[in-house]
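[Meeting: bench + compute handoff]

Bench side (C.D.) handed over the final construct sequence. Compute side (W.E.) agreed to return the predicted structure before the next meeting so the bench team could plan truncations. Sequence as handed over:
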Amino acid sequence: MDSIAGQKPAVVWALNISVVVLVLLWIFPTLGLFVSSFRTGDQITASGWWSSMFPAEQVLQIRAADPDDNRVDIGNGRYAVEGNLFGEEGLQGTMNAWGTSSRALGAYEPGETADLGDGETMTLQADGSYVWEGNDDQISGRAQRVFVTATQPPDFTFANYNFVLFDENNSEGMARAFLNTLTVVIPATIIPILVAAFAAYALAWMDFPGRALLIAAVVALLVVPLQLALIPLLSLHNAIGIGKGYLGVWLAHTGFGLPLAIYLLRNYMVGLPRDIIENAKVDGATDFQIFTKIILPLSFPALASFAIFQFLWTWNDLLVALVFLIDASGETTVMTRQIVELLGTRGGDWEILATAAFVSIAVPLVVFFAMQRYLVRGLLAGSVK
């Protein structure tokens, strides 16, 4: 049944809803990663990123002040340590319960006195102030551990970024990985475009024997799995002496990206007006002059579209980097591999992993939003006449 004038058919509504759902599915994880990069590890463990703007109940493990430096003689062979758990840790919030054992996190209410055995006691108030009492042997050595269940206000920090980007123990690795990634990505994006542009022009506007077979071969190569060619290609690179280096990974990304590049650019160039090219040939222009003076300027949307795809693919790649950039010293480690190493060494520090991951995707986001207006134009090239 035809739609009533002024009303959208059901298929249009379904399409619009699908687009909105896909956009939300992309935005939510990115937004969650961004918010988590400014939160502490305790906050990430206690609540999801969507509740980061609201107070949340957390279990904090805090130690009292050092007894050897802060204890006071209260007579009769007893000593005491006084302080504030929240103040010593720079925390804020309201305490709901507390305990001295991980098996009984909420054993005591604020203001109650805990009997730690042999006359050792501890009293903790709601504002975090405490009094820890005991004999000479008890109030010495390691400070008493306390588990505090408290409602913490929203708290955001730049400490994660300071550690990832500027801390001397980690920033050198991230900075080196960032430069290594650029060293891989820029040539691996430019080289396929240069090669594919010439090939696409030849397949679109030059007549030669076997052109149809070459076009069919390009289409067939689009469905070849990347993993199928990794080991043979690595063996070839090692045999000719270009394995385990930047040249090998550049050529690998070029080979894997060429089929899509040629297909995309050829479809776009075929759709360009034939009259312009024929008039240029009548005026005596060579194929090279037509390609550089006419085809390339008119094909910028398609070139930009493939550049976005190739840049995002090479920047986020881990598999090809692991295979073709084998370096035990870490001098050629890219950002994706650096994050994997952080996952192994700091697997429980979710705030550090979230920050490193967001730093890694920041550049692709900038590139995508800067050039996304060309993406659809390039993808739709040649689809309609």
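W.E. noted at the follow-up: The domain at 163-379 is CATH 1.10.3720.10 (MetI-like fold). C.D. will use this when planning the next construct.
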